Amino acid sequence: MTTASEYAGLQSVIWVGTHLDLLDQRLLPEEVLYLPLETSESVWDAIKHLAVRGAPAIGIAAAYGVVLGSRHAEGSVEAWLQTVNETADYLATSRPTAVNLFWALDRMKARAAQLAAEGLSLEGCKQALLDDAIAIQSEDEETCRLIGVHALELFEDGMGVLTHCNAGGLATAKYGTALAPFYLAQERGIALKVFADETRPVLQGARLTAFELQQAGVDVTLICDNMAGMVMSKGWINAVIVGTDRVAANGDVANKIGTYSVAVLAKAHGIPFYVACPLSTIDLNTPSGDLIPIEERHAEEITEGFGKRTAPQGVKVFNPAFDVTPNEYVTAIITEKGIVRPPFNVNLKKLFE
Ligand code: MRU
C-alpha cells in the first residue's frame, strides 16, 4: 500500500536541467506521455489547451515558462529583465481564472527586478531566476502537505467524502489540495470513502481524480455529476471537499463548473462544504466572486468531447469552465496556515498579517 510520504504519483511538471517535461494530462488515464517543452510559447500552449491544468500546477509551469522564454536573452541585464517581463505578460494571457498563474508570474517578475538591482551578472540572474521557479514548485509540495494535515482534522474514520474536479497531485507539485487529506488519511490508517464526480465536460474527476486515487490505493468510487444529490440523500456523504482557482476577499470561491451545484446540494442535506487551497489562491484584490473572470471554452468540449459527436451540428452552447460558489455555502477554507471559518471577509485577511 502506498503511503502519503512514499506517494510518488505522477509529477505533472518536471524541470530536467535543460528543459521542462510536462505530463500531458489530456491523455490520462490511457497514456502517460511527457511533452518536452523548450520555449515559453509551448508552455503557453500547454496551459491554454489543458496539457497542464489545476491552479497551482499552472502557476508552476508558467514560472518555468518565464525561465524558458528569457534564458537566451543576450547583452545586458536590463535587456534580460525586459524579456522576463514580456514573457510573463505573454504567459498571463493563457487562462484567466486561476489566480495562481498571475501570482507565480508576479513573483518571477519581482524576483527578476530584485536580481537586476543587486547587480548580478547576466548568467547569475538567469540561474537565480531558475532557482526561484524550482522554489515555487518545492514550496507548493510542502504547502499541500500542510493543507492535508489541517484538513484531516475535519475527517473521521469511516466518513464518506465527495470531491469535484481534480485538486490532487496532478494539479499541484504533489499531494494536491482537496485530495491531500485522503493520502494522509491512508498513511495514518484512517479509512475514508471518497466519491469523485466525473466532472463534465472534460472529465477531470473521472480521468484524473479517480486515476490518481486508485493508483495510490485510496478507496474511490466514481459517480456522474448528476448523481451527487442521490448519493447525499442516501447518507453516504459526510463532507464535501474541493479545490479552487480563486478565492475572493469575501470568501466567494471559483472552481470547476458544477462546484456551485454540489455546494447547494450539500447545504440542502446539511453536509459541510470545505474548500482547500494555498494562500496563493486567495485574491484579496478581488472583493467578491462576481468580479472573478470566468473562462469560457470551446463548444466542442460539450458537443464532441473526446472525438464523439453527442449533440446536433450548430446547436447553441454555453461552456463556462468555472462557476462561483457564494461564501454562505462554504463551511471552511483550509490553507497551509490552518482552517479559516466565517466571517471570511475578516478571517482571510488575517492569514496575510
Ligand atoms: O480547468 P482545470 O482543470 O484547470 O480546473 C481545475 C480546477 O477547477 C481545480 O479544482 C482547481 O484548479 C484547484 S487545483 C488544486
Automatic annotation (TrEMBL):
EC number: 5.3.1.23
Keywords tagged on the record: Amino-acid biosynthesis, Initiation factor, Isomerase, Methionine biosynthesis, Protein biosynthesis
Catalytic center residues: 245 (proton donor)
Metabolic or biological pathway, per its Swiss-Prot or TrEMBL entry: Amino-acid biosynthesis; L-methionine biosynthesis via salvage pathway; L-methionine from S-methyl-5-thio-alpha-D-ribose 1-phosphate: step 1/6
Positions bearing the site annotation: Transition state stabilizer: 165
Matches recorded under Pfam families: IF-2B
GO molecular function, one term: translation initiation factor activity
Reactions catalysed, as given in the entry: 5-(methylsulfanyl)-alpha-D-ribose 1-phosphate = 5-(methylsulfanyl)-D-ribulose 1-phosphate
Entry similarity comment: Belongs to the EIF-2B alpha/beta/delta subunits family. MtnA subfamily.
Function: Catalyzes the interconversion of methylthioribose-1-phosphate (MTR-1-P) into methylthioribulose-1-phosphate (MTRu-1-P).
Entry-linked HAMAP family: Salvage_MtnA (MF_01678)
Name of the featured protein: Methylthioribose-1-phosphate isomerase
Organism: Paenibacillus curdlanolyticus YK9
Taxonomy of the source species: Bacteria, Bacillati, Bacillota, Bacilli, Bacillales
Gene that produces this protein: mtnA
